[in-house]
Inverse folding.
């Protein structure tokens, strides 16, 4: 107990009928590590980094000039709904632009 006398968080001892539990503070914890921002914070700060799937799509579009929904599904090996969500997120982040609707819809770089 003397080890923790200067600690902000004190040890906690809980006793039940058949057991006891001791919770000790982590004396090795260091709060001086850099904070990694969440994706939403990166986007708000203008520092958005595409994830692996998005990078794969961007590489494909750079090479071929465009991509369709079907090509997107095949490229990422995902189903239609997941491909739609990926494309929508990329559109929202201005990584892609869209032309057309339905089966004639294509995505290209803005």
């Amino acid at each position: 107990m003397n080890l923790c006398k200067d600690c902000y968080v004190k040890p906690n001892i809980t006793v039940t009928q058949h057991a006891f539990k001791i919770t000790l503070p982590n004396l090795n914890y260091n709060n001086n590590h850099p904070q990694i921002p969440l994706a939403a914070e990166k986007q708000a700060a203008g520092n958005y980094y595409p994830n692996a799937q998005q990078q794969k799509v961007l590489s494909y579009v750079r090479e071929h000039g465009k991509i369709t929904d079907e090509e997107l599904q095949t490229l990422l090996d995902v189903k239609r709904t997941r491909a739609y969500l990926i494309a929508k997120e990329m559109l929202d982040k201005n990584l892609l632009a869209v032309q057309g609707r339905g089966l004639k819809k294509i995505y290209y770089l803005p």
About this structure: Residues 36-45 have pLDDT under 50 and may be disordered. The first helix runs from residue 39 to 44. The two ends are 63 Å apart (CA to CA). Residues 63 and 103 are 22 Å apart (CA to CA).
